[in-house]
Amino acid sequence: MTICYFTATGNCLYVASRIGGTLLSIPQLMRQERIEIEDEAVGVVCPVYNAEMPMMVRDFMRKASIRTGYFFFVYTYGMGYGEAFAHAKLAAEEAGLTLRYVNAVQMVDNFLPYFDMQEQIDTLPQKNVEGQLDAVCAEIAARKTVDVRITPITKAQMALYHKRLADRWLRKDTALSYTVSGDCIHCGVCAKVCPANNITVTAEGVRFSDHCEVCYACLQNCPQSAIHLPLEAGTAHFRNEHVTLNDIIQSNE
Ligand SMILES: Cc1cc2nc3c(=O)[nH]c(=O)nc-3n(C[C@H](O)[C@H](O)[C@H](O)COP(=O)(O)O)c2cc1C
Questions:
Q1: What atom of ligand 1 comes closest to residue 110's alpha carbon?
Q2: What's the pTM value of the predicted model, to 2 decimals?
Q3: Do residue 100 and residue 189 come from a single domain?
Q4: Domain range for 54
């Protein structure tokens, strides 16, 4: 089994490692000229962003050539996954694949503008992550299949959230809105955890380019908590308890 994953704060890396098999980082795969993956089972593990998959994961689905008899998606999310299952089904179809299985694991919501990370961490036990994961892992091990029904209502809801163009603009706006405080020690961690290679650190400071994925890996993983958004719901930051900073660097550098 091969799992392709995208992660900013470790939830998806943890889920991917719990499911097992060979783990491949989507940001690293995307730096290859061609992506060819063949295995008996191939899965994508990624966060829900804006009720669908991250932009880079969608681009990955368009670029990769995947050959498998059992293709699946597992999302991680915090509050709600909207029509993310339907997006996975359609992205698979576009890639010439049949989505055999899809599920979502509710974990910490790392969307900093809305959620206080400390509150998210404190209330995590209520989400029973391990119980959810046991069920997902058992279903994948049994090669369970599920079908996603796409109705006209689903399509209308997908259109509502499916703002690819707006997302591309959001990338620029977000990158422009980051500020770096005087606590920055120019350690370069932000550049190393950025899945999009969007950050350069020099003696003069931190520079954000215009292809931000809006994943907040830089803010969440900054050892000095020096990077900020105009709006943050709290001061705490989050990284999955089973995942180290080095794991995130190795996934995204
Ligand atoms: C830009 C952005 C958008 C998000 N949108 C959603 C969403 O629509 N629904 C939701 O439940 N969680 C949303 N989240 C939360 C993540 O899906 C969730 O925290 C995920 O587990 C993070 O995975 P990671 O730790 O592997 O990066 C969003 C997070 C970010 C950064």
A1: 19
A2: 0.96
A3: no
A4: 2-161
